[in-house]
Design goal:
This protein has a single domain, classed as Immunoglobulin-like (Sandwich). It contains no helices and seven strands. The chain is elongated. 20% of the residues are buried.
Length: 99
């Protein structure tokens, strides 16, 4: 599971999902099924957090998060298939703040 990441609206941040704790001892990520972002509804009318640049290496899935509305929290969900054929999922959060 990734920790909560804080960013300002204009920043682009790297989001890393580390699947080490949910994979078998020798398994690695073989493919990404999806990475999604969902507004948690803290701010009425908030804009989406934009995800781009999806990649994977070893036991980690990475993407970049941009935009978002100050005060909103966004749930990120990464679903991947590992080298053993299992589908695995991790969630994390991005809080957009105006500092």
């Amino acid at each position: 599971m990734i920790e909560t990441i804080r960013k300002q609206p204009a920043e682009v941040v790297k989001i890393v999902f580390d699947f080490t704790d949910v994979l078998g001892s020798a398994a690695t990520i073989a493919s990404i099924t999806s990475i999604t972002s969902t507004n948690c509804g803290v701010v009425s009318g908030s804009v989406a957090l934009t995800l781009s640049g999806q990649s994977f290496a070893g036991r980690k899935v990475t993407c970049f998060g941009a935009a978002g509305t100050a005060g909103e929290t966004y749930k990120q969900t990464a679903i991947a298939v590992d080298s053993d054929g299992q589908t695995v999922e991790l969630d994390g959060y991005v809080e957009v703040v105006e500092l």
